Amino acid sequence: MYRIDARQSPDNHVLAAGGVVWRRSKSGELEVLLEHRKRYNDWSIPKGKIDPGESLVMAAIREIVEETGFHVRLGKFLKRVQYPLSGNREKVVFYWSAEVIGGKFRANSEVDRIAWLSIPEAEEKIQYESDRKVLQRFLKTDVAWHPVILVRHGRAGECSPGAADVLRPLDAVGRQQAVTLAEAASAYGVTELYTADRVRCEQTMLPTSQLLNLPLKVERTLSEEAALIHPDDTVDFWLEMCERAARGKIPMVCSQGGVIPTLLEGMETTGGIALDSRVCKCKKGGMWVIFVDDHGIAKAADYLPSPLAVR
């Protein structure tokens, strides 16, 4: 499990994001993209600085598109790389696996050409040891893994006097979290949406439903009350989501804080990775990205505690 967060970074950290962009050749071989930067006359992995008001996930997507012209879908988080800059500053770069889903390269002010290479060829051509280590991490990651996303609802406000807790809505922060979660859902290529039958959960997923033009399905087993009474039904639903991911769907599920540890720990019952309750807690608006194999068995997990802008 990897926790991906840069919100508490010191002011002297220059934050950046990017990814190992990959595709399958016509013969089925795995190829990765290296870009040649005119300014530095070097070959490197696509990356760039985070803009004000931008999250790590969206920075990675934007930089890859701007530098290479390719649209990508994010996969497993790979590595955090840090190295010194002048003026007592540190560059900190967050890298993902990024599968090409469209687009075309056009030379631009930063990148004048690209190369599609095998991993050994890329390791030989690349000029920075830190980039080489990112490629080596990518090589250890199975690109055939399938994501399924679990979200805790955004921050909620107070109930109206006499109103039931199930009707409690998101507050202003929660509504902003919902908007940025929609952007993250787009980055991972979400295709299905499910929510607990709580107003704050439904409101958390609404911007994603609108952005991706996907129906929002209410699932009663996802509430804390349902999970307390029939925990097996709740876990069974989550394992069904993992199986759907293995069949090519990318589900995104929103639930409550008391349910999320139950769901994540339940993956161990099918032989998946073990995540105990001490690390399974999820902040409001936080997101778990679980990666399953072709049988729906959980193999890896990334945790993003906040969808909001880094700075």
From TrEMBL:
It holds the Pfam family NUDIX. One of its GO terms (molecular function) is bis(5'-nucleosyl)-tetraphosphatase (asymmetrical) activity. This is Nudix hydrolase domain-containing protein. SUPFAM superfamilies: Nudix (SSF55811), Phosphoglycerate mutase-like (SSF53254). It comes from Lawsonella clevelandensis. Residues 12-139 form the Nudix hydrolase domain. One of its GO terms (biological process) is AMP biosynthetic process. The lineage of its organism: Bacteria, Bacillati, Actinomycetota, Actinomycetes, Mycobacteriales. Keywords: Hydrolase. Belongs to the Nudix hydrolase family. PANTHER family: BIS(5'-NUCLEOSYL)-TETRAPHOSPHATASE [ASYMMETRICAL], DIADENOSINE 5,5-P1,P4-TETRAPHOSPHATE PYROPHOSPHOHYDROLASE MUTT. Coiled coil: none annotated.
